[in-house]
Amino acid sequence: MTDILIGRVGKIISGDEQGRYIKVVDDAENTGGFLILIADDIEFRSGYDNWVEDKDALNRYFLECEWLINWSR
User: Fold this and answer.
1) Residue 2 — very low, low, confident or very high, per pLDDT cuts 50/70/90?
2) Average pLDDT of the chain?
3) Which phi and psi angles does 64 have, rounded to 5°?
4) How far, in Å, CA of 25 to CA of 50, rounded?
5) What is the tally of structural domains in the chain?
6) From the DSSP assignment, how many helices (H) and strands (E) are in the chain?
7) Structural contact between residues 42 and 22, judged by C-beta atoms closer than 8 angstroms
């Protein structure tokens, strides 16, 4: 499994949604969970989001998607 970097953009290089971009946002202040943003382009102009309630759910989500992500620096 790939490391999950919060607040950084990455490109999904294998698994579900291969070729798309991802960003995980810590939404603890508003919802207590994490937003998972998925987009066709690096500017996130066209895409969708998912939400998970905590870090454990975030880890399970990544495992289920079988993602390998190339995170930006």
Assistant:
1) low
2) 94
3) -65, -35
4) 10
5) 1
6) 1, 5
7) no
